[in-house]
Amino acid sequence: MSAALETRNLTKRYGRRTALSDCTLTVPAGRVVGLVGPNGAGKSTLLQLACGLLTPSGGDIRVLGERPVSGSPRVAFVAQDTPVYPGFTVAEHLRLGAHLNPSWDSGYADRRIAALGLDPAQRAGSLSGGQRAQLALTVAAAKRPELLILDEPVAALDPLARRGFLQALMELAAESEVSVIMSSHLIADLERTCDHLIVLRGSRVGVAADVDDLLATHHRLTGRRRDPAAVSAGRVVIGERHTDVQSTLIVRSTAPIDDPEWQAGRLDLEDIVLAYLTEGQR
Fold it and tell me: Which residues form the ABC transporter domain (predicted)?
């Protein structure tokens, strides 16, 4: 399987409001993929379409080569509120997971709960936010899915709990062949955990590429003020800022930056994401 998720002109409308528009992308299999964008950009809509919880208004979507179906044993989903049942004990969550999922890995689930130091007899409602998130991740991972989808899973966690969750996610990805798609507003977290990035803006795809490729091909150019249209061929201007005497451009270029009239600087992932999110806002 070469792609975990493929969409072609995927569109989702709610009445007159368009939540996702003409979305075309390919998410490679075996990667940890970050999905970023402002509120209302369509992140949750895309993930719910991938889980089969929503149906498209137009276009096409394939998950692991098939049309998405809610409850597929090949896909696991952890929503933003890290859904667990407050009245169920930790052990009852694992028993329910085993009952509902033919591919359930009870040995993995038991080992992970023990490693986390969770009391199997403790009710989920009395767990901390970080512990509930870890329990939700354990239940999703023990299903042994081919694709794990996480919608803002660490949004409500404190820094320590967030670090623990992301460390567990990286360990899971390293030890198994699961593909992961995770949405988040926390770009620093995505830079530490993800090797592929999708930026959504205004219900459309701004950019989708491997993180290493994004870092290697995007540059900050600083020089005397000039028209961005004068930039050499093969360089796409993503963002620009000007003073009376100086221009600063964010460009994407596959060719080396060797123009002596420009001083080239490196960008981090947050710089690149913000450039795409503000593209066209001059």
Answer: 5-227
Separation of alpha carbons 16 and 251, rounded Å: 35
**Segment holding 265, helix H or strand E:** strand 263-265
Specify the fold of 3-202. Rossmann fold (3.40.50)
Residue 99: Cβ within 10 Å count: 9
Burial zone of 124 (CB within 10 Å; 0-12 exposed, 13-18 middle, 19+ buried): buried
Contact in structure between 229 and 213 (CB atoms under 8 Å) = no
Task: Please state, as a whole number, how many other Cβ atoms lie within 10 Å of the Cβ of residue 268.
Answer: 12
Q: For all residues of the chain together, what is the average pLDDT?
A: 91
Give the pair of three-digit tokens for residue 29.
């299999």
Dist CA 180 CA 237 (whole Å): 31
Cα–Cα nearest to 166, from 193, 186, 138: 193
Residue 28, SS3?
strand
pTM for the whole thing?
0.89
**136 with 88: CB under 8 angstroms?**
no
Can you tell me whether residue 143 is helix, strand or coil? coil
Residues 6 or more apart in contact with residue 29 via CB below 8 angstroms:
1, 2, 3, 4, 64, 179
For the chain, domain boundaries: 3-202, 213-277
pLDDT, tens digit (0-9, with 9 covering 90-100), for 189-200: 898 899 999 999
C-alpha dist (Å) from residue 205 to 179, 208, 269? 20, 7, 17
| Cα(111)–Cα(231) distance, integer angstroms | 56
| In the chain, alpha helices (H) | 43-50, 90-100, 106-116, 129-142, 159-175, 187-193, 211-217, 269-277
